[in-house]
Design brief:
Order of helices and strands of chain B: HHH
Radius of gyration of chain B: 16 Å
CATH superfamily of chain A: Cytochrome c oxidase, subunit III, four-helix bundle
Largest sheet of chain A: none
Structural class of chain B: mainly alpha
Number of helices of chain A: 6
Distance between the termini of chain B: 51 Å
Helix content of chain B: over 70%
CATH architecture of chain A: Up-down Bundle
Oligomer: heterodimer
Order of helices and strands of chain A: HHHHHH
Strand content of chain A: under 5%
Helix content of chain A: over 70%
Shape of chain A: elongated
Number of domains of chain B: 2
Chain lengths: ~210, ~80
Amino acid sequence: MRSSTESVAFDTKAREKAADTFGMWVFIGSEAMLFGAILLVFLIARISYGTAFAAASQRLSLPLGTLNTAVLLTSSFAMVLAHTFTASRRWRPAVWALICTSLLGIVFLFVKAVEYGREFKEGLAPVLGAPFSFTGPDPTHAEFFFALYFAMTSLHALHLICGVAVIAGMLLLWPGTTEASRTHRVQAIGLYWHFVDIVWVFLFPVLYLINR
Amino acid sequence: MSHIRKLIVAYLGLLALLALTVGSSFLDLGGLNSALNLAIAAAKAAIIATLFMHLTSEGILPRLAVAATGLWLAVLFGLTLIGQ
């Protein structure tokens, strides 16, 4: 007879779900430490070189940053709808909500790529050996701002790429999976996706809105 | 149905907070700008964590993991900033 739990390690479904959820939250905690450490470096640099950071931040595109924040918040909304539909076993709308989530993730990455392209063209990207030219107060520390900006946003984008890849993989395997495993998977990727959204919710004001 | 309505309200609230944080950055509030931006970011994170991630409705364990994360982040930030 088939067990009602996915893994033989658990007696009941409720225990399995609690363990799954707890595992994801512990993982999210470790990710928060990673992003927290980088934010701390940024905070210290901002306290030390406030003028250079404020001038450098003005060169970022606020319209594109705002648009991307709205796109990511919408993708989180689509993800929570996918979770709600999965919980009530409405599979077709759940699949559509997951497709919308990953498409919005791709839109975010596209807009970010446009922004990066603009910054490379303006000589504001001190990465990959590209030339850096900044006309303003304290160009040395403005360069540090842009190095941190690229480190933070590309690490965030990498997380989003992983999220899109996992959703795409989940959708490919979808027809062959049991209903219980679908619920577990959507729950786990949902927690991850919302966390990546929360990281951006902090990165956006910290990078784009300094003394504007 | 009422659950989905609650999620829609949360989503619209998040967009309103985004408009508020971008709008406030055009006002000169001195040192309050950064504080306001971070407070709004924290409010958005709280909405996402409670309503989208079900942080408070899945038993004690998720809250325990978040509390442990908060403690270690406080140690990280506290001990570093104390010397600034």
